[in-house]
Amino acid sequence: MNVAQRVGSRKLAKQPISAWERLLYGLGELLVYGPLKDNLGFGRIRLAYTAGEAIGPEIFTFYRSLGINIKQLYGMTEASVFVCVQPDGEVKPDTVGTAMPEVELKISDAGEVLYRSPGVFMGYYKNPEATAEAMDDGWVHSGDAGYLDEHNHLKIIDRARDVSRLADESETLFAPRYIENKLKFSQFIKEAVVHGSDRPFVGVFINIDLEAVGNWSERQGLAYTSYSDLAARPEVYDLIQGEIERVNASLAEEPQMTGAQIQRFLILHKELDPDDGELTRTRKVRRGVIAQKYGELITALYGDDDHIAIEAQVMFEDGRSGTVRADLQIRDVAPTAALAAAP
């Protein structure tokens, strides 16, 4: 798979590959990649598109490494589907490509993506109010926030209604779901709730993935008795800090997002649960409930203390309720320096 990741994407992009790398990749195709694609039912796929919610760059790169020409696509019903697609040779794991022919894109002052083209809809059926709200002089409001990179590739970061600004010197763009998705691409992080709107920096609550971190702790020879016990371990904090630093390094590569790097975090004493009203049944974070229920922790996250004692009521699966007491550590994370722009 190391050979596949090194060679596969370059092969699809028709970039130079040495004879030795071609030989190794051909051997991998015979013994590993080909059988794996057959097992997945992908043996005859020549072109594939992914759309909707973002997938992790690791997953996207994995399929391209196997030789599957998978691309990102961005569209809406109001646009007759197509707005952007990735051209051959310009496939990136974190963008949705460039505008389709005759599609125009622009970004509003609020960061919302607007588009127009000959294919946009005439209006919502018998709903002129909704049509007037969605369209402005031929430009359609997508409802998504994003920006165009230096190669005119569109990057979607969040729903426009969820995007705000940090209260820092640069009034940095703050897109909570974009950062949370980057965190949740880690196998060790199950849920993440980032904070930062009208605050000086980004802080985050973390829920560890009990199974993944439990397996990791066993390999490290660390014993634990419960989720709360495992989540409080200094070694687990070190593990999660490494994952946050990886996300910060990724944000540092994006000029619009480098100021939104995570600077403080804590690992929650319990898993966020739909039964406690903290998540929807489809596991979307209820930010209002979190803000009300964990207001004391949010205040501590933006304070000077490095720990906070907490006592909370929890609901067990059998319907019983109980009290959890914990002393939560709060850690600082040093931001990654922004990369210099390419000449």
What does this structure look like?
The structure is a single chain. The protein is α+β, with helices and mostly antiparallel strands and 343 residues long. Helix content is 31%, strand content 26%. Strands 5, 6, 7, 8 and 9 form a 5-stranded antiparallel beta sheet that branches. The chain has a 5-stranded mixed beta sheet with strand order 12-13-14-16-15, sandwiched between helices. Helix 1 packs across helix 2 and helix 1 packs across helix 3. The mean pLDDT is 90. One of its GO terms (molecular function) is ATP binding. InterPro entries: AMP-dep_synth/lig_dom, ANL_N_sf. It comes from Entotheonella factor. This is AMP-dependent synthetase/ligase domain-containing protein.
